[in-house]
Design a protein that fits this description.
Elements (H helix, E strand, L loop, with lengths): L2 E8 L8 E2 L1 E6 L2 E7 L3 H5 L10 E3 L5 H4 L2 H10 L6 E5 L12 E5 L5 E4 L2 E7 L7 E5 L3 E3 L18 E5 L11 H11 L3 E5 L15 E3 L5 E3 L1
Parallel strand pairs: 1-2, 4-5, 5-6, 6-7, 11-12, 12-13, 13-14
Antiparallel strand pairs: 1-3, 1-15, 3-4, 8-9, 9-10, 10-11
Length: 222
Amino acid sequence: MMKLTILGYYGAYPHDGVGTSAYLLEKDGFALALDFGSGAFLALEKHVPFGQVDAVLLSHFHHDHTADVGVLQYARQLNGFEDLLPIYGHSALGSLLVDGVGEEHLYADGETFEIGPFKIKAFRGLHPVECYGFVIDDEVVFSNDTGYFDGLAAHFEGAKLGVFDSYNANPKAHLMVSEIIEIAEKAGVEKVLLTHLPQAGLGSVELPANFVLASDVEVIEC
């Protein structure tokens, strides 16, 4: 059983006390942060102490997905943590890595790798910068930032939970809600979580019964 806690769900910038893209995945006593945007550190501490995060997985390096990665490392540094925090990215982490605190791990497109008890497959999305979605334990799939492309639905086939980023604008960089509905229906996704939401809301979009907004739920067990 996996527990998904939503730490932030806005795209681009925090709004009304809620941060940007950040999630905590827990399984078998292991805590994995998937993206860690602005406000993630404060939200995390409402659920678990920061020292209980065992690893960080980053989809890409835009600030709304990485802003608090350095903050998490500084907290470990100032509180005397001696073990290195594994941080996974698709290329060199550069300034995101605090020397002597974080430990760089790289993944590649199409690669299946393990982080603690999680089996993860990375697939490249369509975004202005290199960005990846993740299939986790063959049951939970994160689109992360991507525009629509042929073959995207295949990554979601049979998923119990599909987590889709949608700014519902700029379709070359993000998915439109109409596209997510199409993908979910084609792939047979059991439950859809819409996140990376626009600050003004999605408007008068009618959502299928198996869709839920990240603003309406904080924890999902799957």
